[in-house]
């Protein structure tokens, strides 16, 4: 993956771009429930956008650009606009993105998106926004999606609200509340709460499956000089096809276990321990309880453990380079499932990111 972001010519106009490529090693279908790993077809795509800065408080992007806050494409988690893919490639949007700082504490965001790349598109690359056909696995009818979000913040808080409208697909609303409480000069307590509601519309509605869903998720983090301790939880009312509505947005995280199944609860406790200012270890067990489908005939009971290592180079010619390695072991009990009564998972993820500036 390679990204480029220019400065602004005459302090008004600039460009950004990138080139991403995935080489698939392949996976045996009978050993993986990760359908997007099946096969060995590799693919790549390029990004390119013009960025216009009418004023110091506003920005407009036109073209194909990143919208993944974990990867660094956006400054913070903007409801519905921001993605957070843990797959090989970050979330990408094609269309127009606008930002306006109404006041020093209030941001307004808007986006119109014609094409997109989400985690569900790992087998195909960038595709049209539109109505998903479960029979063909394609988006047969093109429907653009519109987003609007607002965020208020100060030194210790951020409260954000966003909505999206997409004809024949869905209407969605999401809120994110964040608050940090200083306990003394070296310790803080941070609370985060996310709420989400989606309703399918028009051609995407189904007579045999739920056409709406809601999710609530929260996280509490205690930060100390040596690292942090966190606890998170989430509950999803109805599962949705990820190709239509993405409900994998709660705070509990696992490389292996589903957290977005029918009536699913997910709970996680974890610790980040800083061995040195540059080297951090993560350990986070997780528990899930839910159902395989809306019929609620197959119950899921999952347990897993996530371990991670993060190292950031702080000096020398590679200063700023970040190394991340995570390994995840999970197990699910699914009595009566077509996939098997006991499922065992083992996932590994590694990423290396290097940000630098040319002058």
UniProtKB/TrEMBL annotation:
Stored NCBIfam families: PRK11379.1 (NF008479)
Name this polypeptide is given: Outer membrane porin protein
Organism, as annotated: Escherichia coli
């Amino acid at each position: 993956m390679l990204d480029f972001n220019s400065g602004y010519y005459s302090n008004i106009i600039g460009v950004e771009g990138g080139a991403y490529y995935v080489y698939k090693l392949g996976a045996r279908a009978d050993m993986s429930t990760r359908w997007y790993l099946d096969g060995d077809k590799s693919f790549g795509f390029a990004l390119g956008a013009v960025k216009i800065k009418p004023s110091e408080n506003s920005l407009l992007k036109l073209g194909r650009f990143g919208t993944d806050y974990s990867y660094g494409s956006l400054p913070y988690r903007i409801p519905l606009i921001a993605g957070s893919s843990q797959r090989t490639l970050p979330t990408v949007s094609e269309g127009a993105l606008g930002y306006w700082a109404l006041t020093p504490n209030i941001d307004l965001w808007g986006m119109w998106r014609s094409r997109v790349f989400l985690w569900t598109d790992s087998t195909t690359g960038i595709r049209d926004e539109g109505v998903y056909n479960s029979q063909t696995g394609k988006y047969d009818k093109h429907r653009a999606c519109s987003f609007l979000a607002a965020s208020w913040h100060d030194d210790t808080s951020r409260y954000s609200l966003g909505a999206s409208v997409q004809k024949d697909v869905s209407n969605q609303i999401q809120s994110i509340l964040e608050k940090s409480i200083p306990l003394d000069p070296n310790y803080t307590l941070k609370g985060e709460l996310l709420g989400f509601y989606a309703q399918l519309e028009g051609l995407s509605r189904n007579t045999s499956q739920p056409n709406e869903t809601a999710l609530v998720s929260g996280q509490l983090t205690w930060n100390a000089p040596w690292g942090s301790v966190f606890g998170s939880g989430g509950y999803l009312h109805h599962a949705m096809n990820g190709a239509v509505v993405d409900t994998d947005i709660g705070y509990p995280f696992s490389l292996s276990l589903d957290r977005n199944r029918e009536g699913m609860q997910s709970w996680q406790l974890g610790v980040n321990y800083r061995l040195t200012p540059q080297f951090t270890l993560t350990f986070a067990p997780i528990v899930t309880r839910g159902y395989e489908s809306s019929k609620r005939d197959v119950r899921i009971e999952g347990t897993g453990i996530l371990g991670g290592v993060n190292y950031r180079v702080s000096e020398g010619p590679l200063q700023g380079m970040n190394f991340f390695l995570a390994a995840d072991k999970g197990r699910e009990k699914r009595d009566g499932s077509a996939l098997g009564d006991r499922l065992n998972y083992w996932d590994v993820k590694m990423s290396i990111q290097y940000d630098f500036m040319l002058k």
